[in-house]
Amino acid sequence: MPGTPPTRFVYLGPEGTFAEQALNSIPAAERGSRTPARSVPEALESVRAGEADAALVPLENSIGGAVGVTLDELAEGEPLVITREVVLPVEFVLAARPGTALPHVRSVAAHPQASTQCRGWLRTHLPDAVVVDVLSNGAAAAGAAADEYDAAICAPIGAGRHRLDVLADKIADHPDAVTRFALVSRPGPPPPPTGDDVTSLAVYIAHDRVGALLSVLMELAVRGVNMSRIESRPTGEALGRYVFFLDCAGHVADVRLGEALQGLRRVCADVRFLGSYPRQRFPGAGDRPIPAPAGLSDADYADAAAWLARLRAGDLN
């Protein structure tokens, strides 16, 4: 598949969830097939098996943090790479069958994370309603449409799919909450650098070496590579054994990030490259990339490399 746009997409289902809404924002997905998967492992395994070209899965949420199962799946098994990120505002709505009025709502279906993120709104507007846990936002909308519940907390796409009326929109207690999704494919050439990219890595440190994690951070810091996220997950080997997931500013084709990767390769027990892809800017993330410190830009690295080449050739001018 390297170099070929994906046409067969799979996403974390069921239908009518934020994952489907995020997938719909990718132009290629509008023209291709879209299949819901029952779990993140199932979605990624379909890509590994060649049954799908790409999978869209949640990576992290600004309220709930990293999605551990996605990180674990990327760190294990046959390698996969992230080719794109989609940052989607998490805008929950309260939806019900046509003709239902808010004062008549006595039961609300919601995924536990959704009801947690809308707790304040529910307390204020539906203090006497019973909140029933369901498996997904899509299942909540389907349950309300089937008259199993009076209303549902769901994604806007779920309300539309099940022909529900929106009784209230943007009901989350944190209006700026977002979920970051990753489009994952089998290994191939990464998208070309844009000047505002992210490189994701899974780094295994040498646990019998003092200052091993500090060595990892220094390889990035001395080259002016900004690290936007670090997350640890247990490897499952033994208590205290962790793999660290890093998001770094830059592209594998950049000189300074390339040198940092070589440094990590030298000092780490193992490094798994998880992809270089364009950063999606969103409100609160800043308007432009953080510039490299003086002397640490790609142009500075190129100039230094050319100078060293001249020295080795005997040219001191």
Describe what this molecule looks like in 3D:
This protein is of the alpha/beta class. 30% of the residues lie in helices and 29% in strands. It has eleven helices and 15 strands. It has helices at residues 18-23, 27-31, 40-48, 68-75, 112-117, 119-125, 137-145, 156-161, 212-221, 255-267, 298-312, and strands at 8-12, 33-37, 54-61, 65-66, 81-89, 93-96, 107-110, 130-133, 151-154, 165-169, 178-185, 197-204, 227-234, 242-249, 270-278. Strands 1, 2, 3, 4, 5 and 11 form a six-stranded mixed sheet that branches. A five-stranded mixed sheet has the order 8-7-9-6-10. The chain has a four-stranded antiparallel sheet with strand order 13-14-12-15, sandwiched between helices. A hairpin with a 3-residue loop joins strand 3 and strand 4 (65-66). Helix 9 (212-221) runs antiparallel to helix 10. The N and C termini lie far apart (48 Å). The model has no long low-confidence stretch (mean pLDDT 88).
